[in-house]
Amino acid sequence: MAKSVAPGRPNQFLRNLNSKIACIPMMLTALVIFLGGTVWTVIYSFTNSKLLPRATFVGFDQYERLWAASRWIISIQNLAIYGVLCLIFSLLIGFVLAALMDQKIRFENTFRTIFLYPFALSFIVTGLVWQWVLNPEYGVQGVVRSLGWESFTFDPLYTPEIVIYGILIAGLWQGTGLVMCLMLAGLRGIDEDIWKAARVDGIPMWKTYIFIVIPMMRPVFITTLVLIASGIVKLYDLVVAQTSGGPGNASEVPAKYVYDYMFQAQNLGQGFAASTMMLLTVAIIVVPWAYLEFGGRKRV
Q1: Is residue 212 within 8 Å of residue 198, measured between CB atoms?
Q2: How many structural domains are present in the chain?
Q3: Rounded CA gap, 167 and 157, in Å?
Q4: What CATH number corresponds to the domain at position 290?
Q5: Is residue 35 part of a domain?
Q6: Omega into 247 within 30° of 0, i.e. cis?
Q7: CA-CA distance, 68 to 62, in Å (whole number)?
Q8: 269 domain residue, yes or no
Q9: I need a surface site. Which of 4, 170, 212, 267 has the fewest CB within 10 A?
Q10: pLDDT tens-place string over residues 47-79
Q11: CA nearest 234: which of 250, 255, 249, 251?
């Protein structure tokens, strides 16, 4: 038996050889560009690099300056507010729209196209459109005042306390359509017999959704959460297009902080430190989730 197994080992290695060879460029890209770039960034975050990288290590000085900067603290607070609200409202609005679409309404394809269309636009275009819509002179406020309500005020992009909510409106407008389509695909994957059994048992529709349908759509929710979270972390285009970080630093976000310090302030060390903190934050959230989702399960 041992002699018959040994000759088969080279064949196992040569199986799907073309596929393995085709994966080499992708693997090299992941190792050299992504992993190598990440390691390089972390290492140089401990240096005093300015316009060009230089290996003059200063310990944790860049991180001390980072967390002492009010601009960085504001950017973290803004991202936390935007992230939490974006996750909640994207899932809620997207699921409700998908549930309505799943009722076999007339002109479903038309409505689905209308809701999904904003996602086809770039964030810069979306930001510029909503900058105009929220402009106090010729946007919503100007239109309402022209109708006779002179005391009406709605200028979130020019009010430091609520500017992040103006950016949130644009983000939800663009991303909710994709969430709706993902949820609708999940709902259409539910067996029709489950709905019939729930109706026969007299279970209210809202209970059917909460206790039966939503748990069955767990993979769809996880995929949607990952997509939304990736968009939240790299939030940059909307802020630049709508407010450029203003008024003052009221709408600052971490990605813009990194870009400004690396390419405008010519302080690579500070930009590397900020980007490393963003990476660490993502790792703290993703690694435990990935372990619980994939590695912590009992293998059958």
Answers
A1: yes
A2: 1
A3: 8
A4: 1.10.3720.10
A5: no
A6: yes
A7: 10
A8: yes
A9: 4
A10: 999 888 888 899 999 999 999 999 999 999 999
A11: 255
